[in-house]
Amino acid sequence: MALVTSKEMFQKAYDGGYAIGAFNVNNMEIIQGITEAAKEVSAPLILQVSAGARKYANHTYLVKLVEAALIETDLPICLHLDHGDSFELCKSCIDGGFTSVMIDGSHHSFEDNIELTKKVVEYAHERGVVVEGELGRLAGIEDDVNVSEEDASYTRPSEVEEFVTRTGVDSLAIAIGTSHGAYKFKPGQKPQLRFDILKEVEKRLPNFPIVLHGASSVIPEFVDMINANGGNMPDAIGIPEDMLREAAKSAVCKINIDSDLRLAMTGSIRKYMAENPAHFDPRQYLSPARAAIKELVKNKLINVLGCDGKA
Ligand code: G3H
Ligand code: 13P
Ligand code: ZN
Q: Which protein residue's CA is at the shortest distance from atom 9 of ligand 2?
């Protein structure tokens, strides 16, 4: 099977009341862990590449690794640019074989966001590629950009119809209280999402796929594993799984997960190294790391996103 866009996946997810997992990938072990899990439970997948991942691993390596995963799994896989910040970056990914791009103009004014997003949509649609836009600003850290809580802002439902109509985007990321990274809420703070905003957006955009970024649950098992093996992470709080399950049943068709993969990988490597201090073959510590990612993703696909059996 060739790479697909997210068009059909989203329509089925919207109609079926589940969500597609969009997992960030940076190397072979991460791609293998995710795609082996999806194959076992027969789930469609979005594999997404940030500008930082592209810089780290190289565009061609990532595309070829994802093509290898297609051969190995025969699953519907969409290859997506995560948080594209310029027309040039989106163009380069479209020209280089991606089937979906995000243009994140959320830090621009409403009008400038529309102008930039529209330009990317025109280029992408002419080439059969789909586009995700964003309205509202999430707090947290992506790449070199650190958005403070004060600078973050919820999506204004009153703006979504105009944004979608004028840009022609295929899906829309909204800010309802999720945030990037492992520290989504302050210690002692009760995690909360603005489901009222999501409902209002749904009402204004019938049959339209919504995207949630910053949706890692920050599984305590992995934070504990890091801290029990020489790490020193402060209290980290993520999005509770029941909230994500609720979101997946709504118009939310794509749920982004990166930090949970990082924690699983780092936790298992730290544990392996602590238990085997004399080992130095990377295959020895990367094997359990890949297995940890696989287990984590399998659990998400079945118990959180509900997209198992939907490939
Ligand atoms: O939303 C951001 C993702 O977690 C990607 O992070 O830009 O550090 O690769 P990165
Ligand atoms: P997390 O940091 O919660 O995993 O979010 C990832 C993300 O939104 C990627 O775009
Ligand atoms: Zn994101």
A: 256
Which residues are bridge partners to 141 per DSSP? Answer: 146
Q: Ligand 1 atom closest to Cα of 180?
A: 1
- Among residues 87, 80, 175, the alpha carbon closest in space to that of 123 is found at 87
Helix ranges restricted to H, 58-204: 59-73, 87-95, 110-126, 157-167, 195-204
**Is the separation of the CB atoms in 202 and 181 below 8 Å?**
no
Phi, psi angles (nearest 5°) of residue 303: -95, -15
CA 76 distance to own-chain centroid: 17
CA of 232 to the centre of ligand 2 (A): 21
pTM, whole model, 2 decimals? 0.96
For the purposes of burial, counting CB atoms within 10 Å of the CB of 79, is it exposed (0-12), middle (13-18) or buried (19 or more)? buried
Give pLDDT tens digits for 79-115.
Answer: 999 999 999 999 999 999 999 999 999 999 999 999 9
Q: Is the CB of 13 under 6 A from ligand 2?
A: no
Looking from the CA of residue 178, the nearest atom of ligand 2 is: 3
Answer yes or no: is pLDDT of 40 > 80: yes
Ligand 1 in contact with 202 (CB < 6 A)?
no
H or E stretch covering 50? strand 45-50
